[in-house]
Design brief:
The chain is an alpha/beta fold. The protein folds into 3 domains: about 90 residues, no CATH class; about 190 residues, Rossmann fold (3-Layer(aba) Sandwich); about 90 residues, Arc Repressor Mutant, subunit A, CATH 1.10.10. It is about 45% helix and about 10% strand. The protein is built from 18 helices and 11 strands. The strands form 2 sheets. A 9-stranded mixed sheet has the order 1-2-6-5-4-3-7-8-9, with helices on both faces. The chain has a two-stranded antiparallel ribbon with strand order 10-11. Strand 10 and strand 11 form a beta hairpin.
């Protein structure tokens, strides 16, 4: 396992941290300096005269202007301050050129100069798959991401994601539920949880994986930082799985980075009319691997029959544990949602202004008694119970709200009530 240890307070470490904070000096410049001179170059640069700085830059194939001036201004910063900030953040750091620096990252076109870590780095001896997809994911997409991630993690595959809401968060959580290892690469400091909706995953990751970032501690999330982190998600992985993606989404940027790095890219196919599947279908047309079963990815990673009997047995145990944990969480979520629903209905008569779709809740749930139904089947039944015309938009909005609250489940375009005794969460 590629463990990151707390580094001693030596001058080289301080100089590395100092260099990573010089305004206007990016990872490409810093890694070229390391390749030319070794990590000790930053200790020399911190103490160097303008002429010496220029010489070191030119020897690394870099122009004096504008980098020499930026380094000179950076000499006014205190390296000890950067080290103190790192210690106070609770993070560790690994730098380009370190023995612990991930070998896979060192081979990509634009490797990060630094990785700040909360937890550990991925194990270089175990396969890793990046599972990514849309933030505005569908229930079917989230279920697919969970199913694939559970199975892959149960087989010993490490799951890499960006911890974004939707597919990324579901994938990372499922890997941990399966007893596997998961890693999230952030577009902010590794000591900053973003988005806040992924707090539970963020808190669980360091014990069974890690949270990684190339940005120094305390860096706030910003739109321009996320596209660059996607190359690290791809770089740490042996393969990339796209579950759902729009045509011009951040997920497609990650897929592009993986292709540029020579990584295998796989995609889940979707219906042509589904906006959430447009990116996946485009990737498949362009040559990405089409997968519909986790076993196909396992075989691609391990080869047919290469997984040991002990690994397959452990996978079965992990998968059963994940099923139990998922069922318990689903039952708890359904109980909370039922309680909230009943409380709202109890006080509904006292509400002065109800949202337009609120009065449809009970009619939709009553109409869902029995077998699952499509929206087309539900529409006339709900309208009859409501005693008025109900638009498709009203019905879709009400169903979406009920799905988010765990009261209704959608699968392949059919909806069923989770309040029925026979309706149990299945993984």
């Amino acid at each position: 396992m590629n463990q990151v240890s707390n580094q001693p307070a030596n001058q080289t470490t301080c100089a590395l941290l100092w260099a990573d904070r010089i305004p206007g000096i990016g990872s490409r410049t810093l890694t070229r300096l390391v390749s030319a001179h070794g990590q000790e170059v930053f200790l020399r640069l911190y103490r160097a005269s303008p002429d010496e700085i220029g010489d070191l830059l030119e020897q690394a194939g870099l122009p004096r202007d504008p980098y020499a001036g930026r380094i000179l201004r950076g000499q006014q910063q205190d390296p000890e301050k950067a080290l103190a900030d790192l210690r106070n953040s609770g993070l560790t750091a690994v730098f380009y050129g370190d023995p612990a620096y991930p070998e896979k990252l060192g081979k990509i076109p634009d490797p990060p100069f630094a990785l700040y870590v909360k937890g550990t780095l991925p194990d270089p001896d175990a396969p890793a798959v990046a599972v990514v997809g849309s933030r505005e994911s569908t229930p079917h997409g989230r279920e697919t991401a969970r199913r694939f991630s559970l199975e892959l993690a149960a087989r010993g595959v490490q799951i890499i994601s960006g911890m974004a809401r939707g597919i990324d968060c579901v994938a990372g959580t499922a890997a941990l539920d399966a007893g596997g290892r998961s890693f999230a690469v952030l577009g902010c400091g590794a000591d900053v949880c973003y988005p806040r909706s992924s707090m539970e995953l963020y808190q669980r990751l360091p014990a069974c994986g890690g949270v990684l970032s190339e940005y120094p501690p305390g860096t706030a999330p910003a739109a321009g930082l996320f596209p660059r982190r996607n190359r690290i998600i791809a770089g740490l992985s042996d393969a990339l799985l796209v579950v759902e993606a729009g045509r011009h989404s951040g997920t497609m940027i990650t897929a592009g980075a993986a292709l540029e790095q020579g990584k295998d890219v796989y995609a889940i196919p979707g219906r042509p009319e589904d906006e959430a599947s447009v990116g996946c279908n485009d990737l498949i047309r362009q040559g990405a691997g089409l997968v519909t079963d986790p076993a196909e990815l396992v075989e691609a990673l391990y080869g047919a029959g290469d997984a040991s009997d002990a690994l397959w047995c452990l996978a079965d145990l992990r998968r059963e544990r994940a099923r139990i944990l998922g069922r318990e969480r689903a039952e708890e979520k359904t109980g909370r949602a039922r309680s909230a629903f009943m409380q709202e209905e109890l006080f509904a008569d006292h509400a002065k202004a109800l949202p337009p779709d609120r009065t449809l809740w009970s009619f939709v749930l009553l109409a869902l008694t029995g077998t699952p139904k499509t929206q087309e089947e539900l529409l006339p039944q709900v309208a009859a119970r409501a005693g008025r015309n109900v638009s498709r938009t009203e019905l879709a909005r009400t169903l979406s709200r009920l799905v988010r609250q765990g009261l209704v489940r959608e699968q392949f375009g059919r909806y069923r009530s989770m309040l029925q005794g026979e309706a149990k969460e299945q993984d």
